[in-house]
User: Which sequence fits this backbone?
């Protein structure tokens, strides 16, 4: 008798809702700090409130949503302290990954590692050339993830990957103006410098990006001049 194929279980209702809300939050369709009303979302997606609460809990684990007693759920927000703390954590994980790579391989990283990093850099270059900010952000994150993954430490890679959504959320409402091609050029130089010089460069690189983010946020927060009255009669 032919063997019956085992059917793989599909995503649960909670997982499906998490994916949909995750996409709306990171696309900016739901803004930073916006309240997430359990009853409204249950009605909108025709789901039970129990399912909605489960999705909120998952998004809170990803730090995309905050849950407060008596106030409910809302999309997370980032002040400068939260930005710096997240960048410090990214720096600690990436630094340790590069240290492990240097301990194992010195300044001669295996081709299987450098090819994966180069492929991520090529995707960043293509996104930057296309002028698509959201795609560029994802590709930029993938370059750093490829560097961390190269250390072949599953726990470090897993913890770093958890920061991806939080990073994307933080950048969802700003745009840093780079001359076209300069972001991928900067990261090609950074990746090569890590191979040549080691993990000490990680914190310098992330400190630079932190200042760019803070400057962009401050610029976005500045009040725009309002047009004056039309002088024409």
Assistant:
């Amino acid at each position: 008798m032919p063997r019956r194929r085992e059917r793989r279980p599909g995503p649960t209702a909670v997982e499906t809702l998490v994916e949909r809300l995750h996409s709306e939050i990171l696309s900016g369709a739901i803004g930073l700090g916006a309240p997430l009303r359990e009853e409204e979302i249950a009605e909108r997606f025709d789901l039970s409130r129990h399912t909605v609460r489960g999705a909120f809990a998952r998004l809170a684990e990803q730090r995309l949503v905050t849950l407060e007693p008596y106030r409910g759920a809302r999309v997370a927000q980032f002040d400068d302290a939260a930005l710096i703390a997240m960048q410090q954590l990214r720096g600690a994980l990436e630094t340790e990954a590069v240290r492990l790579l240097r301990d194992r391989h010195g300044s001669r990283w295996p081709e299987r590692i450098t090819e994966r990093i180069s492929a991520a850099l090529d995707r960043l270059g293509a996104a930057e050339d296309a002028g698509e900010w959201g795609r560029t952000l994802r590709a930029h994150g993938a370059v750093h993830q490829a560097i961390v993954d190269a250390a072949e430490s599953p726990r470090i890679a897993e913890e770093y990957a958890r920061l991806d959504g939080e990073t994307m959320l933080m950048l969802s409402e700003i745009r840093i103006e780079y001359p076209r091609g300069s972001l991928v050029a900067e990261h090609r130089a950074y990746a090569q410098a890590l191979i040549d010089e080691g993990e000490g460069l990680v914190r310098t690189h992330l400190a630079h990006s932190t200042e760019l983010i803070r400057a962009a946020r401050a610029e976005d927060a500045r009040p725009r001049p309002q047009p004056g009255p039309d002088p024409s009669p």
